[in-house]
Design a protein that fits this description.
Length: 177
């Protein structure tokens, strides 16, 4: 049987007994990421995926390694994007987690983390619209702490440049418009 089918069936099996599954440990194992991504999509079809995302994000609750928080956050965003439109609860959780990562985590200073989150933010804008995530960026950009404001500005740059705002104006310039 093809590996993809096994992953899908594994995700179905996990969804049937979610309370007894140690998601907090599985999310730390890269081999399980595809299965957990499928699980999020399956749950998101009929239910709020936020509780599952929260369990993913709490996997590093002891803050053993700060970079794990960023990896878990980007993974949680990818999982939320498996839903046609992430629930309000999932959007709120992701927004709060991004803010925390910029204020207190590796996105405060690490450009790679900012770029990874920013590129995913672009996709969230496309799927969810601008309301909650625009407010997030506005709060971060206007933060009185220079590092946080810079992080918010970088996220906005990745989210909006990637969305084509600056690229479109460059295309108009090149085409003579």
């Amino acid at each position: 049987m093809h590996h993809s089918f096994l992953e899908y069936f594994g995700a179905i099996g996990l969804s049937l007994d979610l309370q007894n599954v140690d998601l907090e440990q599985l999310v730390l194992l890269p081999r399980w990421h595809e299965i957990l991504t499928l699980l999020a999509g399956i749950i998101g079809e009929d239910d709020d995926v936020a509780p599952v995302l929260r369990r993913f994000l709490q996997s590093n609750s002891q803050k053993l390694k700060p970079d794990i928080d960023a990896k878990l956050l980007t993974f949680a965003i990818d999982c939320a994007l498996e839903c046609e439109v992430p629930s309000e609860g999932a959007q709120r959780l992701i927004s709060e987690s991004i803010a925390d990562c910029v204020r207190n985590g590796p996105a405060r200073r690490d450009p790679w983390v900012r770029s990874e989150i920013g590129l995913r933010l672009r996709r969230l804008f496309e799927v969810c619209g601008e309301g909650l995530f625009d407010a997030l960026l506005a709060k971060l950009i206007s933060d009185p702490t220079d590092d946080v404001a810079a992080g918010g500005t970088a996220l906005a740059g990745y989210a909006f440049v990637s969305r084509g705002g600056l690229a479109r104006s460059g295309e108009r310039h090149q085409s003579g418009l």
